[in-house]
TrEMBL record:
Organism: Aptenodytes forsteri (Emperor penguin)
Gene Ontology CC, one term: mitochondrial inner membrane
Heme is among the record's keywords: no
Family per record: Belongs to the protein kinase superfamily. ADCK protein kinase family.
Record bears the keyword Cytoplasm: no
Entry protein name: AarF domain-containing protein kinase 1
Keyword annotations from UniProtKB, A to Z: Kinase, Transferase
GO biological process: lipid homeostasis; mitochondrion organization
Length: 519
């Protein structure tokens, strides 16, 4: 009897599977059991691989390191396949992991990076349905033209180019219709699976990833929130004439549809595009650093998804100036005042190679005894370089390899550290790694000018904070004078570096040398 029931159940399951996969109106991903089963199976296979593949090999041996790298790679590929199959939230979390270049083993970051270009696309019918439900009209009633092929597709939405009835060219960001319903269930599933894995591998500390997704995903799924962020950052950084943020058209925007001014350009990591269009690569890198230093240290309101698809560059034909176009304002981190001040002072200590203050402020930010590792994670430099001064020498190829290798060697300590630091730090670390990736592509990483810009912003931020806490007019004047002198010193140092690297500087040095030998 039991055998007959099992045969019948198998026949029903097989018939249902064939029907679901063959029916173009039904997507297997709509069924929770499919998504859950796929996630459980992938987690089980990855766990089994780690448990068995390294069991009989001596820890620390060359063979162990080789096998561990192979397991990392296989596991990363399985994780990528799971993300592509389950889509939505899974791709979003996979992209987040792929951005942690100097915090996770290279096998994971290299494999998961492709998720930025493998996001799913909604069909034309699904797009029409979302616009109809949210705006109450058909596409042809709202637009003179609407390009069916999206300009780009991401984990949560896709963007189409369109022309409004009044002739304005716009970018229309439309949320994938099933993401809202699936996201909360997906996060709960990830949380349960990570808890199970932690029971098997006690050193596995990735609950911070789920906590971040719980907090940030609802905000990213609210496009009205994204529109407000765009307007806030545009106003906040209005003094930077090189920054362009698309204008929001509120009359045609909802929680799932966002209409913006259409802007285009080359991706910020495309050095060849900049050279073809006469854009100064060093100027772009310097301005990007200024932009993020201002957001992090001075304003405490940080755009946390600066991957190359969200940061474009374009040369203005009229003025000849190069503009940075900042897109996708769904994910911002708001920094508390106390956190921001500790972070400012930590970076000041790192730039000055003041190890006592590096230890002090790292501990205040939750690093504890792992403060040397924390300093290396923040700067993506070796502990030797941190001690010597991160602004003294650029990153060498061997040092970069060392840092990436250490990400694998110290993975348990890194995950423990990520679990202990304030939640505000997590998105900053991701942002740091994305910005470093851009600098590496442009060959401008760890330039002296980037540290000078950071120093300026830290000095301004700390001075503003100190003035706000002082009730004495004399004390406030003293703080302002100290600030002015510190900024003047930085300007003088920058002038020295410019002279040193310029033709004029070489002439001056040659002249001084000639005068010295003449006397």
């Amino acid at each position: 009897m039991a055998r007959r029931v099992l045969k019948l159940a198998s026949l029903v399951a097989a018939t249902s599977g064939i029907y679901l996969y063959g029916n173009k109106f039904l997507d297997p991903n709509d069924f929770g059991v499919v998504r859950v089963g796929r996630a459980i199976a992938t987690t089980a296979v990855i766990t089994y691989d780690y448990l068995t593949s390294l069991r009989s090999v001596p820890y620390g041996s060359e063979e162990y390191d080789f096998l561990k790298s192979q397991v990392h790679l296989r596991s990363a590929e399985r994780l990528r396949e799971l993300c592509c199959a389950n889509r939505g939230t899974f791709i979003k979390v996979g992209q987040h992991l792929g951005a942690l270049d100097y915090l996770l083993p290279e096998e994971y970051t290299r494999t998961l990076k492709v998720l930025h270009s493998q996001a799913p696309q909604s069909t034309k019918q699904e797009i029409e349905q979302v616009i109809r439900e949210d705006l109450g009209k058909e596409i042809k009633e709202l637009f003179l033209s609407f390009e069916d092929t999206p300009l780009g597709a991401a984990s949560l939405a896709q963007v189409h180019k369109a022309v409004l009835q009044d002739g304005r060219t716009v970018a229309v960001k439309i949320q994938h219709p099933k993401v809202q319903a699936q996201s909360s269930k997906d996060i709960l599933l990830m949380e349960v699976l990570l808890l199970v894995v932690k029971q098997i591998f006690p050193d596995f500390e990735f609950m911070w990833l789920v906590e971040e997704a719980k907090k940030n995903l609802p905000l990213e799924l609210d496009f009205l929130n994204e529109g407000r962020n765009a307007e806030k950052v545009a106003h906040m950084l209005k003094n930077f004439d090189f920054l362009k943020v698309p204008r929001i058209y509120w009359e045609l925007s909802t929680r799932r549809v966002l209409l913006m001014e259409f802007m285009e350009g080359g991706q910020v990591n495309d050095r060849a595009y900049m050279e073809r269009n006469g854009i100064n690569v060093n100027e772009i890198s310097r301005n990007l650093g200024r932009l993020y230093s201002e957001m992090i240290f001075v304003n405490g309101f940080v755009h946390c998804d600066p991957h190359p698809g969200n940061v474009l560059v374009k040369k203005c034909p009229a003025s000849g100036k190069a503009h940075i176009i900042l897109l996708d304002h769904g994910l911002y981190q708001v920094l508390s005042e106390s956190f921001r001040m500790d972070y400012c002072r930590l970076w000041q200590a790192l730039i000055k190679a003041d190890m006592k203050r590096v230890q002090k402020y790292s501990r205040r930010l939750g690093a504890g005894d792992l403060y040397p590792l924390f300093a290396c994670m923040l700067t993506a430099r070796s502990w030797e370089s941190v001690n010597r001064g991160i602004d003294r020498l650029p990153v060498s190829a061997s040092e970069d390899v060392e840092i990436r290798s250490n990400a694998a060697a110290y993975l348990p300590q890194i995950t423990r550290l990520l679990n202990n630091v304030p939640r505000q730090m997590l998105l900053l670390l991701k942002t740091n790694d994305l910005l470093r990736g851009i600098e590496s592509a442009l060959h401008t990483r760890a330039s002296a000018s980037s540290f000078l810009n950071m120093s300026r912003c830290c000095i301004r931020a700390v001075s503003t904070y100190q003035r706000s806490k002082s009730h004495s007019l004399y004390r406030r004047a003293q703080i302002s004078l100290t600030e002015a002198l510190s900024l003047w010193q930085i300007n003088l140092h920058e002038l020295f570096l410019w002279l040193k690297g310029s033709q004029l500087g070489n002439w001056v040095i040659a002249l001084l040398s000639w005068m010295h030998h003449s006397t």
